[in-house]
């Protein structure tokens, strides 16, 4: 499901009642929704250039990350530094509206990172980012965590858009990695789709959806920024740290930004 905004929605920075309902229904039923062209392209251009530079540092160090530690995949997000932190990414009003509708008052951001899929990469194991909170239940509980993904460029079959398995967030089985039998059974019911998107679009997905990175057959890295919006009582870690000077990106909001600011260097690449 993809949603294209009207001129009025853009002017008001608010989804219409109908489009908000479409977004919520898509996440509840399929596990994800794409909202098209809601991030400024000049912001994404700045991030694209910096993330390309950062990716080369991690590639040189062979710091492969993400599910399975597969060669060609990096744990790499947007730098939490000025001037690279933008309001329409960390506090996008349309994303906040959807998350609030699904998670309720008190929801907060718990994560700011991402991943990069490099040319010549392998296929990740099929996985979900988190299991069900109560695995003893025989039905899925309502969503407790939403992943917000933003790419600073177009995402396509060629550059390795993430593979998504619709409806798998409703599978209450235990474990984060489906086995081959589960995969085959699911494929027969509802085969996967690739999360291709135009630059400026935002993917919002239930964190329990099965997914995996697939080979990047292009000549350029495919970047993806990730945030995690949690229901208010699901606090498992401390605040997200940004460089001082980024404060203006975090307006007063129904979203608890859950931030701390520091003057100390931030080793966001993990290179020491």
Structure description:
The strands form three sheets. The protein has a seven-stranded mixed beta sheet. Strands 7-6-9 form a three-stranded antiparallel beta sheet, with no helix packed on it. A two-stranded parallel sheet has the order 11-12. The protein has six helices and twelve strands. The mean pLDDT is about 95. The protein starts with a strand and ends in a 10-residue tail after the last strand. It has helices at about 5-10, 15-30, 40-60, 85-90, 95-105, 180-190, and strands spanning about 1-5, 30-35, 75, 110-115, 145-150, 165, 195, 200-205, 210, 220-230, 240-245, 260. The chain has one domain (about 1-260): q2cbj1_9rhob like domain (Jelly Rolls), CATH 2.60.120.620. Helices cover about 25% and strands about 20% of the residues. It has about 270 residues and is an alpha+beta fold.
In CATH, what is the class?
Answer: Mainly Beta
Q: List the total number of helices.
A: 6
Give the CATH H-level superfamily: q2cbj1_9rhob like domain
User: How many structural units, i.e. domains?
Assistant: 1
Most strands sheet: 7 strands, mixed
Fill in the CATH topology: Jelly Rolls
- In terms of quaternary structure, what is this? single chain
Coarse morphology = globular
Topology:
Blueprint: E1 2-3, H1 7-12, H2 17-29, E2 32-35, H3 41-60, E3 73-74, H4 87-90, H5 93-103, E4 108-117, E5 145-150, E6 163-164, H6 180-189, E7 193-194, E8 202-206, E9 211-212, E10 222-230, E11 240-243, E12 259-262
Parallel strand pairs: 1-2, 11-12
Antiparallel strand pairs: 2-8, 3-4, 4-10, 5-8, 5-10, 6-7, 6-9
